[in-house]
Structures are given as structure tokens and as C-alpha cells.
Amino acid sequence: MSSANALKPSERMKIPRQEPLEQAPLDRVKNFSEVSLGFNEERARAEANRCLECKNPICIEGCPVGVDIRTFLQRIMERDYIGAVQVIRETNYLPAICGRVCPQEEQCEAVCTMGKKHPPLAIGKLERFVADWELEHNAFSPPAITTSRKEKVAVVGSGPAGLTCAAELARKGYRVTIFEALHAAGGVLRYGIPEFRLPRRILDVEIDRVKALGVEVMTNFLVGRTATIDELFGEWGFRAIFLATGAGTPAFMGIPGENLSGVYSANEFLTRVNLMKAYRFPDFDTPLAIGHDVAVVGGGNTAMDAIRTARRLGAQHAYLVYRRSKEEMPARAEEIHHALEEGIDFRLLTNPVEILGNHDHRVSGMVCQRMELGVPDESGRRRPLPVPGSEFTLPVQTVIMAIGQSPNPIIQSTTPGLRTGKRGIVLVDDTQSTSRLGLYAGGDLSRGGATVILAMRDGRVAASHIHQYLHSDGA
């Protein structure tokens, strides 16, 4: 392929990595509007022109869904922004979402050739730019579906894995129905990720584009209660089913005081705010009193979302309590950076041992213990060890636990022959097939915790193998 860039590689390397426009920290802690405003056209073109157009673009290998990154960047260089987003959508049907929440710094950008000596290309920000350009110019048109197939496929759950699987199958001509337990589609994208990271208007547009492929979405439908998997196969007539119900059962530490009023799981807290609009009370009837002092326990993206949300709800002192050091935090670097800018007080190498309550059984404080790092554990991170006699108390009125989640057990308990593993995850092979013929699973349900893009990868792989299954002699 010929180069779309007239600059020599040495000249491209001299272009500084572009930074997105952002709300100022003191402004954004007072609202739920999007923090990052993305690239304007000038910055997007400057950043795309940094691409070395490698003959062997290993950035594509770093993308879990295999987006043709080199080609979409070349389209930007040519000012063909609609062509760029169409290249992305060939393998990633949710570009406006992924451009905002995908951890590119650990995937495509981590292996970018430019990144060996200079900052890597801002691939995620460029993905967002072209997706937003398409939206702003009302230039989306659904891909033509040239085949109509009689087989019906069910997708259970409307998060990133479910939406991706549904889109891929619909593009192949299948009759696809998504079953969603909540009253609105989106799964963790809607109830878990705050408005300031993923605006609901963007999520709604992406879901509408999946529906535009002919996908039917049935909300308020709890598979395992409203209908079982066997009933979907039987009387409903589905030939294959993809399970993508996520991991919505929260974990707690098992320390004294976790039953006090004012203790939340991050799942409940974020669902109240994001899905039930507590941040717009009293316009929406979801009050959420958190007090002036809030502590979130954990170090992942969910913990960052929870503490940054608490700050916006009025917390004057917002503590992020994490038992390891900053280097071991699983949260995205961008989220950590934004949290620090917003005045979040990081209490690192700190572990809660007890939650204190007052005479009304409400949280009044949290007893913590200092930690130090020992030898690496099975995760490869250094194991945190308590420092004797180092206890101290944080004066807080709200404690939010963000230390992990596991799948809801309803489908597992109502589906005979479905093999499960630790914490109730559904076991799958490399085709996303479960132990039941025609039944597939992916995302957090089979991983126990994953990024949006890995969930999308599972949905894409499952769709491919569902297609093979339905056209094999065994189907």
C-alpha cells in the first residue's frame, strides 16, 4: 500500500503526541459532563501524521478485535474521516464507545512502533475522533445485509459482549433477539460507567445502530426467571444462544461493620447514580446521601469511577484506599491521572480492617492498617503485608467497596449441564462454547472480570463460531 503521508519517518517522529482538550479539574468536579473533549480536526490530523505506516503493523495484533489501524489512520491523513470509521466498524461495531473507554495503552498503543523511542500514537483518541465526526455530520449508514437466514439466535445481556455478538450475527443475516434484565440496554456500559466518561447519548446512538441491523431488544426480561435457557431453545425456537450477562454480584471484605448503613458495593452505588439518575435528584426520584467524607476501597477502574462520582456528588474529602502501591493499580493511567487532578486523596499501602458506626448504625469511620509489599503473589504483583501496630481511623460517613464482582448465579442454577468454575464463571473453550451444545458465553460471565474490548472480542469470536455451528451437520 502506498503512503498517505508525504513526511519522512524522521519528520513524523518530531511531531509531538497530541493531547485531547479537557474540562478543567475545578470545573468538572461540579458536573457530570464528559471530562475529555477529544481531538479537534487539527490535532487529529497532526496525530495521524505521526504514524510510521509500518509494513508489519503490529498495532493490529495488539487490538483484541483486530481493527485495521494502519488503514484507518491513512484515511484520516487523507481527510476521509467517514472512510476511517467504516474501516474500524468492519471489526468493531462500537467505535465511539471503544474510543472512550478501551485501554489502548495496554493493547494497540503498547506495541506501537513509534512507542519504542517516542510516545506511541494516540490510537484510541483518533478512533473517538472519527466516530464523533460521523455522528456530528449525520453520516452513518448501516451496512448492507445481503443474506437473510431463517435461524433465530438469542443473546442474553446487552453489554459490550452481547451488543457485539448481536451485531456480527445480524450482519450475517440471522434473526437476533437480545434479552436484557434491566429496563434499558447497555449493561455495564450504562449502569457501571459514569456519564463523565461515557455520555449516555453516545451509548444510545451505538445501541440504536445495532438495532438498525434488525436486532430486536427485549428489556425487563430476566433469563432464568422469565424464561429458562431450555425454554429459549425449546418453545421460543432459538437455534443458538450467547450468554453475556456480566458479573454483577459484588464482593465484600468480610470485615466488621460492613452491614452498617452507608456501606455500598460499587455496583449498587454506580447503578443508583448512572442508571437511576441519582446525580439528577430531585428531577429523578433516587436520593443518595453520602456525607462529606467518602472512602472507596479498591484500585481498579470501577474504584476510580466510584470515587470520582462521589466527588461530583459533593464529597469534600474523597479517599481512595488501596492495599498496594500506585504501580500495582489495575486502573487505567488516564483514570488515575484524572482522579489525582480532581483532588482524590490516594491512601496507598492501606487496608481497611473495620468499619465503625454510631448509635444510629450509620458509618462514622473506617479503621485502616498500613501495608508493606512482600514477594510477588500468583498475580505477579508484590503481596501486601500488614504492618503491626499501624492502625489509624479515617473519619468517613460512606464506604464503597470496589474489590471485584462475580456473575449472578441465576442462569447457572437453572441450566442443567452447564459447567461452571470458580466464583460461578461459565466455563468456555477457545470458541466461546460452553458445555451445552449451541450455548456460548463471553465477557465477564466467562472471564470473571474483563475490559470492554475483551468482552467485545468474545462476542465477535462467539458470533463466528455460532455461524459455523449453524451451518454444520451437527446443528
Structure characteristics:
Fumarate Reductase Iron-sulfur Protein, Chain B, domain 2, 475 residues, five-stranded parallel sheet, 3 domains, single chain, FAD/NAD(P)-binding domain, alpha/beta
Query: What is the β-strand count?
Result: 18
Strand content: 15-25%
| Average of the residue pLDDT scores | 94
The top-level CATH class of the largest domain is Alpha Beta
Distance between the termini: 41 Å
| CATH T-level topology of the largest domain | FAD/NAD(P)-binding domain
Regarding quaternary structure, what we see is: single chain
CATH-wise, what's the superfamily of the largest domain?
Answer: FAD/NAD(P)-binding domain
Q: What kind of sheet is the major sheet?
A: 5 strands, parallel
User: Which of globular, elongated, flat, extended, rod-shaped describes the shape?
Assistant: globular
> How much helical structure, as a percent, in the residues?
25-40%
How many H/I helical runs?
18
The count of domains is: 3
Structural overview:
There is one protein chain. The chain has 475 residues and is of the alpha/beta class. The chain folds into three domains: 9-136, Orthogonal Bundle (Fumarate Reductase Iron-sulfur Protein, Chain B, domain 2); 152-248 and 406-470, FAD/NAD(P)-binding domain, CATH 3.50.50; 259-403, 3-Layer(bba) Sandwich (FAD/NAD(P)-binding domain). Helices cover 32% and strands 17% of the residues. It contains 18 helices and 18 strands. It has helices at 9-12, 25-28, 41-48, 58-62, 69-77, 81-89, 95-101, 123-136, 160-171, 188-191, 200-211, 229-233, 266-274, 301-312, 333-341, 410-414, 444-447, 452-470; strands spanning 21-22, 36-38, 152-156, 175-179, 216-218, 240-243, 249-250, 263-265, 293-297, 317-321, 345-347, 350-357, 363-376, 382-386, 392-394, 398-401, 405-406, 439-441. The strands form five sheets. It has a five-stranded parallel beta sheet. A five-stranded parallel beta sheet has the order 8-16-9-10-11. A hairpin with a 5-residue loop joins strand 12 (350-357) and strand 13 (363-376). Helix 6 (81-89) packs across helix 8. The longest helix has 19 residues, at 452-470. It starts with 8 loop residues before the first helix and ends in a 5-residue tail after the last helix. The relative contact order is 0.12. The model has no long low-confidence stretch (mean pLDDT 94).
